[in-house]
Amino acid sequence: MDFFALVDERKSVRAFDDRAFEPEKLQHLLQAVNRAPSAGNLQAYEILLVRDAARKRALVSAAQDQEYLAQAPVVLVFCAHPARAATKYGGRGEALYAIQDATIACTFAMLAAAELGLASVWIGAFEEQAVAATLNLPTGWRPVAMLPIGYAAQTPDRTPRRKLEDLVHEV
Length: 171
Prior knowledge:
Elements: H1 3-9, H2 23-34, E1 45-50, H3 53-62, H4 68-71, E2 74-80, H5 82-115, E3 119-120, H6 128-135, E4 142-150, H7 164-167
Antiparallel strand pairs: 1-2, 2-4, 3-4
Helix pairs in contact: 2-5, 3-6
């Protein structure tokens, strides 16, 4: 698909078929994520791939009961790995660049999913400590986004966007 058409057509989907998607699609998606830009090419993030139903249920609880987390066959949890960024960038790497790296990677995953005919929705509303405990995250890793991925069970309406003249400010 043309990139601009892909961006225009991608939607946040909050209802998923429970059927699994093809392993090669997951592999393509993860390879695209691995190409995401990162500060100093440190890739200061980690991705946890969750398929286990009990863990997905625990993530639902950690995410204010967003049930679609449990519907999707795969949930990717993007975690900042601040210590990786600190090796080159010190405190700013820890506090900012690792989070930016994880969010850029999540964005690449969303776009790759759409290109592959899959649906996703960015989840940022969750209790970090509950997610960390559910996934047994190592000390220092910080969950910053969860991305359920699967085939859509709905076709959401197009959401309105701000006008560019309200959004962009030339200085």
